[in-house]
Amino acid sequence: MWRSAARQLPLRLTSGAFFLHSGLTKRGADEQTAEALHGFAKATYPKLAKVDAQQFTRLLSAGEIAIAAALLLPGVPVVVAGGALTAFSLGTIGLYLKTPGMREEGSLRPTEQGLPLAKDVWLLGIGLSLLADGLTGPHRAVTAARCALRHRR
Hints:
By secondary structure, this protein is mainly α. 76% of the residues lie in helices and 0% in strands. The protein has one domain (2-89, 122-152).
């Protein structure tokens, strides 16, 4: 179990610190910044048009801070932290894939404008690695063995 936690530590610390910074930065966003973030998101995800720009930015900030907490707090199970990171990064990769101008024509290669979103593929990889570790790691075998012993008694 300690090996698994040690292996997860760099992934959780680096991505958690990134999310904490991002969430705290958006927390005090002015109206112009909120409008820009909201405009970008609602252009790709039209249902977001129903949400006020300031509210959207506050929710985005809170979500990023919550993901940071899940990644940085050792008591949060790796499956929860990895799942949250995976879900968020899938949303931003969706922005990358669906927003015109983010990729070179007919390619997955990012344009200069798309590079900030394209990097979220790394966050997806980290999230999936944490999920895989949490679902298949050595602690699962120990838990399964303990359950089997309890049922024999």
